[in-house]
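Forwarding the complex inputs:
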Amino acid sequence: MSYLDNLRAVTPYVPGEQPKAENIIKLNTNENPYPPAPGVAKILGEIGGKEDRKYPDPTAGRLTEALAGRYGVKRSQVFVGVGSDDVLGMCFLTYFNGNKPILFPEITYSFYPVWAELFRIPYETVALREDFRIAPEDYRRENGGIVIANPNAPTGIALSLSEIEEIVAGNPDSIVIIDEAYVDFGGESSLSLLDKYPNLVVVQTFSKSRSLAGMRIGFAIASEELISALQSVKYSYNSYTMNHAAILAGTASVEDEEYFVKTCKQIVRTREWAKGEFAKLHFTCTDSRTNFLFVSHASVPAKKIFEELRARNIFVRYFPLPKIDNFLRITVGTDEEMEKLFAALKEILAACRTGGIL
Amino acid sequence: MSYLDNLRAVTPYVPGEQPKAENIIKLNTNENPYPPAPGVAKILGEIGGKEDRKYPDPTAGRLTEALAGRYGVKRSQVFVGVGSDDVLGMCFLTYFNGNKPILFPEITYSFYPVWAELFRIPYETVALREDFRIAPEDYRRENGGIVIANPNAPTGIALSLSEIEEIVAGNPDSIVIIDEAYVDFGGESSLSLLDKYPNLVVVQTFSKSRSLAGMRIGFAIASEELISALQSVKYSYNSYTMNHAAILAGTASVEDEEYFVKTCKQIVRTREWAKGEFAKLHFTCTDSRTNFLFVSHASVPAKKIFEELRARNIFVRYFPLPKIDNFLRITVGTDEEMEKLFAALKEILAACRTGGIL
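Prediction (whole assembly, two chains):
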């Protein structure tokens, strides 16, 4: 017997690299290249620590209210947390207490199996189709809950609203979480299904479309009953999860719809142009509806390109995992950053051609 | 079978009241009446949302480094989280996985049983002595871990370093967490025991002595081995828990030792003066080493005083719980706030005398 015997054994999740050097092009963590709404800078400059001595509002009332207004739901249908990771983690802890395995795609956000293991939730993964698409009919087996990222990561591919509905309607006895981290870049949100399906939970984040990864804000929208269960668990863990700065920054972001729409459109425009550029260089590219591209070259291995880009201070994401180890996930940056990326890719491919790899 | 069958059932914890009205004297949640260090306002004004589009440093490196420097430990011995509630919650989840009950005092921070229930950790509470003191010899029984708030809440009473050592040394096979939320106001920190006892974990917060309740910052210091286990669980839950603003604000606070010492001393001075004032009004007062006082009047019920103060816009904390339901927990405010409190108390006691209660 030792004091170490009762430690929870987990396989540590290693977060993506956050290089500290200057002059790098960082396209590896799907951050937004544009700053948050101007109101965010304004409000942070104004608070100036004055209100920090007091506890923040445990209900994050202003932010919850702004989100309820923006998405046309009741305030009691909105739950906010420290990034969608906190929100999803709380969802796993709250909703998945059964003995049947929960289901999620074999290739998807890599945190799902980590949470399942952390909270000792049984799970099974469901294979994707050959073309990386999720097959809704595969989610018709017995389960203790379902989680679908839509659009999915790192493939970028979206299910249609009717495909999502097929999964939600086909599992009336399970809670189905749709993780819409990237939905604002061209996916169809399942929020419109909420009135019809009390077993549906929609999760979104401020880290991508709202350029607020640094402030850690995510939210869930569902029936009052499911949100209330989530609140009870959250209040049993930490009453005050959203700090004062995050509540104000998030609210300022939601209040500037025009800026939000404008920057999302710009990302989509850059993404669609980049798809064409990748094709010219003989990359295949999934039909991404996100702020990243999932690409594979016809002849040069992804790992080689990853390393060569990195040597040029351009960071993208490479997953040494079965089925996707010849792909790169590349965040959509500014047009200027993408032009530098393509210049580097041309250089790398030319060198490979000379070196006999191509 | 229903989608609701797998919900985690918890008794929701209701956070303390955060009244929104102006002109109130808020002495109910042990906030610090002084603003955070001037550097905090400065840094928040400067960041102005610019860095918010990127993910924060998942290791909260600057803050961790500042804390390691301040407390004379290695960086790998420091864990930071979203308030000490997040840190303590992670500690419960990480350290208390055995089948034997964990132990904590019967009267203490009310979150301990809530976390135990949330994570299904068996627990037993240990009675206090008649005078509300913790009896170290009572922690010599078989257990799966121990948590002691020192100074304890809501009594404010501190154990000496040798009494803490008695508990830690007497339980070499258990992890012992010392929750030092209030230690900077006159308790003895157990940090000096760390070199001797690898089963010790010390938790502190920025919410009290550093006036940063609004930013949600807490930390644990322990052996590298125990901190590493905590990091693994944290990274398995949420890689980025501390937002950008919290990392910078916390660092700015740690860097201003002079301001920290000055404001802590001011709170202690006000507290000691207040003890005398309470005695004059026939209140008994525990020997509080915190930023709050735990008081009971010789003849007027605590509940009555609580309600009368509230009617005068002075918020203090009343716990309708066995053994402490005739006590009030009153945060040490500014001298001016405390003078208003005593004026109100005199008025209330005079009215009780006239009304025949006294």
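Residues 38-255 of chain A form a domain with the Aspartate Aminotransferase; domain 2 fold (CATH 3.40.640.10).
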